[in-house]
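Exercise: predict the fold of this chain.
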Amino acid sequence: MRYFLDTEFNGFGGELISLALVPEHGHDEYYAVLPLPAALHPWVERNVVPYLNSVPPGLNGGPVSRLEAATEIAHYLRGDEAPVIVADWPEDIAHFCLLIVTKAGDMVPTGNLSFEFVSSPGFSTAGISKVPHNALHDARALRDFMTRWEA
């Protein structure tokens, strides 16, 4: 199955702040918020941080460590023999991959993963997402856009 990925991070090349995976089918979504960096990029402070908790109850129990998030992702994907992670921005894939690496030479047990980077002409999270710059809402928007675009 495909899982649509979005992340929020602290400016270009900055630390991961939140991550969401939204399945192509069903409603079992994954969303995590990591501890905020000590110094926030001003744009991120204005446009991302206020919306971190704009998700359904139960999907955000507060900040989790990188290791907790990585372990949760491995658990979330464990029942899928061939998960495909879909993103429309290269940094989203990079942040995902860096997150599942837990230390030098070690990673959480995800099994095989495939990644699909999609160029999504006409897609704008700011124009389509119900809560722009929230990883969960942006991943949902990407899924919905891709589903309509491929139809």
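Check your answer against the key: The chain has a mean pLDDT of 93.
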